[in-house]
């Protein structure tokens, strides 16, 4: 397969192929579904809820070296790359627009007498979020190098955008899942004057309200459940409503807007 890129949270990246690490297998399974059930009568159960747990992703690699010394050095480098005190991202370069946020289980590193083959390493990566995500957000949807039509659910025959200057518009969620603002918070950004701003997703029947007046120089942001005005929390002035995004199209309405304004939806997609 093509190489994997490991990206640490501080932005440091490692191209495994360039480091002499050949990826044999990187095999994300389907989501890990768990069904909650209740007994119904004597003979059966009824599913009352379904959740998604962490995914275990099998990975195996060969580590190549030129002599006994360099294979030991490469082993130490390998352990540094996959250090799991904190999470890190794995990007499969066959579809470099998607990344997995993971930790690694303990990595057994086998040596061979033929040190040309270096270490044979197989273990699991643990994706606690349950889903991969797009490397970039919708604010950069026009950069075609960061998006792919195939495999990302983005409509082929329709133009999608995430910045608007009108009070009614449609937002497309290309994820495989509904984006729940409490669990996977995203940003709704409003710039412009407003009198008691309201943001409604009519598809989910949710409306956020803020009891504030904005001038044309103000910038308002709703990040999950948290509203900010020019970077300062105004949580007490809102109605604490969440704005989720259903899979597919979502119809939005903005109330209280005055004059020229811009609304931007800044989210990643999940697969």
Key structural traits:
single chain, 271 residues, mainly beta, Elongation Factor Tu (Ef-tu), domain 3, Jelly Rolls, 2 domains, nine-stranded antiparallel sheet, eight-stranded antiparallel sheet, 5% helix, 45% strand, globular
Description:
The chain is mainly β. It has two domains: 4-133, Elongation Factor Tu (Ef-tu), domain 3, CATH 2.40.30.200; 137-266, Jelly Rolls, CATH 2.60.120. The protein is 5% helix and 45% strand. It has one helix spanning 68-81, and strands at residues 4-7, 13-15, 21-26, 32-40, 44-53, 55-63, 88-92, 98-104, 119-127, 133-134, 163-164, 168-173, 187-201, 206-209, 213-214, 219-223, 226-229, 232-233, 248-266. The strands form three sheets. Strands 11, 12, 13, 14, 15, 16, 17, 18 and 19 form a nine-stranded antiparallel β-sheet that branches. Strands 1, 2, 3, 6, 7, 8, 9 and 10 form an eight-stranded antiparallel β-sheet that branches. It is globular and about 75 Å long. This is Siphovirus-type tail component RIFT-related domain-containing protein. InterPro entries: Siphovirus-type_tail_N.
């Amino acid at each position: 397969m093509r190489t994997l890129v490991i990206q640490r949270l501080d932005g440091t990246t490692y191209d495994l192929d360039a480091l002499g690490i050949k990826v044999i297998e990187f095999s994300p399974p389907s989501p890990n579904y768990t069904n909650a059930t209740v007994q119904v009568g004597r003979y059966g159960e009824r599913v009352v809820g379904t959740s998604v747990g962490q995914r275990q992703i099998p990975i195996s690699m060969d580590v190549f070296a030129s002599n006994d010394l360099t294979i030991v050095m490469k082993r130490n480098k390998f352990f540094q790359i996959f250090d799991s005190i904190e999470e890190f991202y794995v990007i499969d370069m066959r579809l470099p627009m998607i990344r997995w946020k993971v930790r690694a289980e303990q990595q057994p590193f086998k040596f061979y007498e033929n040190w040309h083959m270096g270490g044979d390493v197989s273990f699991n990566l643990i994706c606690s979020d349950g889903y991969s995500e797009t490397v970039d957000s919708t604010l950069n949807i026009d950069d075609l190098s960061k998006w792919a039509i195939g495999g990302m659910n983005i409509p082929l025959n329709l133009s999608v955008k995430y910045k608007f200057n009108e009070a009614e518009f449609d937002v497309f969620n290309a994820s495989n899942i509904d984006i729940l603002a409490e669990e996977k918070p995203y940003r709704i950004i409003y710039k412009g004057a407003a009198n008691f701003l309201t943001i409604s997703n009519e598809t989910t029947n949710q409306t956020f309200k803020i009891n504030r007046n904005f001038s044309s120089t103000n910038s308002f942001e709703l990040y999950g459940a948290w509203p900010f005005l020019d970077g300062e929390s105004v949580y007490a002035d809102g109605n604490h409503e969440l704005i989720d995004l259903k899979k597919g199209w979502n119809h939005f309405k903005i109330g209280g807007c005055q004059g020229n304004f811009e609304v931007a939806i800044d989210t990643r997609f999940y697969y």
